[in-house]
Amino acid sequence: MDNDDFHQIPSNVSTIADLFDTKNIAWGEYQEGLPYPGYQGYRYPESGANDYVRKHNPLILFDSVTEDALRLRQIKNFSSFYDDLENHRLPQYMFITPNMTNDGHDTNITVSGAWTWSFLTELLENDYFTKDTLIMLTFDETGTYEIGNNIYTFLLGG
C-alpha cells in the first residue's frame, strides 16, 4: 500500500493466517501500544503522539481475520509477548511490531537500534526462545519522504 488510509480487505482474499491455520501452525502478532487484543481502530491513542497504528498491523486489515474471534485474540499487545515467553506459550510464527517511537518512524535509527538491542539481547540467551528460532528483522525508515525507503533485513538464528 502506498498510503495510510483505513483499509479493509474482503474475506475472500487469502492471508498467511489461512495457510498457517490449514497446516495447524500456531501464529500470533504482538503489537506495541495495542490497547487490547483484536483492536481494529486506526490508531491508539486517538489523539496526541502516535503509538500504535493500524497500518503496521498487517493481519488486522483482512476481514477473514477480523470476522473471526479466535484470530482476533491472536493479535495482542506487545506486553503479552513476555507473558507468553515466560509460560512457554509463544506461537510458532510471530509478527512483532514496535510502536511508532521504537520503530524509528517518529524518531531515528538510534532509538530503534536501542529498542532492538534491549529486546533481542536477553532473548538470544533464552534457550526456550532460541530453540529452532529464526528471527527476521526488517527496517524500512529513511529520514525524509522525498527519498524512497531503503529496506534492509537481517536474519538471526541457530
Spatial ordering of strands, largest sheet: 4-1-5
Order of helices and strands: HEEEHHEHEHHEE
The helicity comes to 25-40%
Low-confidence stretches: none
Structural class of the helix and strand makeup? alpha/beta
Hey, roughly how much beta strand do the residues contain? 15-25%
Could you tell me how far the N terminus lies from the C terminus, measured between alpha carbons in angstroms? 33 Å
C-alpha-based Rg, rounded: 16 Å
Give a quick account of the main beta sheet: strands, pairing sense, barrel closure: 3 strands, parallel
Molecular structure report:
This protein is 27% helix and 18% strand. By secondary structure, it is α/β, with parallel strands linked by helices. It is globular, with a radius of gyration of 16 Å. The protein has 6 helices and 7 strands; from the N terminus they run H-E-E-E-H-H-E-H-E-H-H-E-E. A 3-stranded parallel sheet has the order 4-1-5. Strand 2 (43-44) and strand 3 (52-53) form a beta hairpin.
